[in-house]
Amino acid sequence: MLVSHNAKILARCKFGWRLQYSAPQTQARGHGLPRLQRYKTVDNVMKRTILNTKAAAHGPQRRSTVPASVKDVAAAAGVSASTVSNYLNHPEVLSARSTERVRAAIERLGYVPNESARQLRAGEGKAIALILLDAWLPYFSELSRGVEDVTREDGWSLFFSNSGRDAQQEQRNIDMFEAHRARGIIIYPLGEVTPRLEQLNRRGIRSVIVGPAHGAPSIGSVPFDDHGGGMLAGRHLLETGRRRIVFIGDPAAAQTADRLAGLRAATAGTDAEVSVIEES
Predict the structure, then answer these.
(1) Residue of 10, 28, 178, 259 with fewest CB within 10 Å of its CB?
(2) 105 exposed, middle or buried (CB, 10 Å; 0-12, 13-18, 19+)?
């Protein structure tokens, strides 16, 4: 029989999480309760398993928490590991009998191919990273959908991250995707990332910058005419009779500076007054 154990976790953050566990001291028929171990810090929690459970399940078999491997599938199907590999990568070379035996073993064991491990062995992956400036803005939702549609068509994986208008987080995101062996990076940047992306290009990781223009020939670009957009906005306000115009943004950001320059170009020689409210 399965026994339900109520474990209480009291967590408090002070120089790390402190965890405490308690559970009923009863025993199932013929089976011991999970052994509840106490760990004081997150370091210990990360190093070991918090709960070492041996609760009984129906029947003589117990489901392992360790994912099944290719060797497990091969043993269950009574075939070689290379046959399982062919089933996954070149199914056309297998006989109908071998195909069915491997399929049944995979279904019985719940085997899921480890794509990351396969790509690591092959020395290359099929993953692209998309680093967004501010994921909460509707524009970036549309950008993400467009990139995802294209990558999905060609069988690539797409990883997302959000810089949240934080230049340091932006650099950490780039470092993270380099460590995870992304083949390419698409980024709408906040800070100056061109030197870092040129470095990645020399290491075989291609990049595309969306938004601000740059002069690096080794980096792809999808530029916006921010200066022209600022001029259009300024002309529209002038045509509707506005003369006291407020620009809200961070002039330190390249694309924002271009928009402000376009606005000022549109209002130059007029009686309009442009004031700036800096937003970091």
Answers:
(1) 10
(2) buried
* Kind and range of the H or E run holding 157: strand 157-162
Distance CA 250, CA 134 (A): 14
Task: State how far the Cα of 134 lies from the Cα of 163, in Å rounded to an integer.
Answer: 6
Q: Rounded distance, CA 261 to CA 267, Å?
A: 10
The residue ranges of the chain whose pLDDT is under 50 are 1-63
> Residue 174: which of 158, 193, 156 has the closest Cα?
193
- Burial string for 151-177 (b: 16+ CB within 10 Å, else e) reads beeeeebbeebbbebeeeebeebbeeb
Which residues make Cβ contacts (< 8 Å) with residue 42, sequence separation at least 6?
16, 17
Q: Which residues pair with 275 in a beta bridge?
A: 246
pLDDT in tens, 134-162: 998 898 999 999 999 999 888 888 999 99
Rounded CA gap, 164 and 280, in Å?
12
Report how far residue 202's alpha carbon sits from residue 216's, in angstroms, rounded to the nearest whole number.
13
Q: What is the pLDDT of residue 116?
A: 63
What residue has token string 């760990």? 39
Size (the chain), residues: 280
Give the model's pLDDT for residue 113.
Answer: 79
Estimate the share of the chain in helix, then strand, then coil, as percent rounded to the nearest 5. Answer: 40, 20, 40
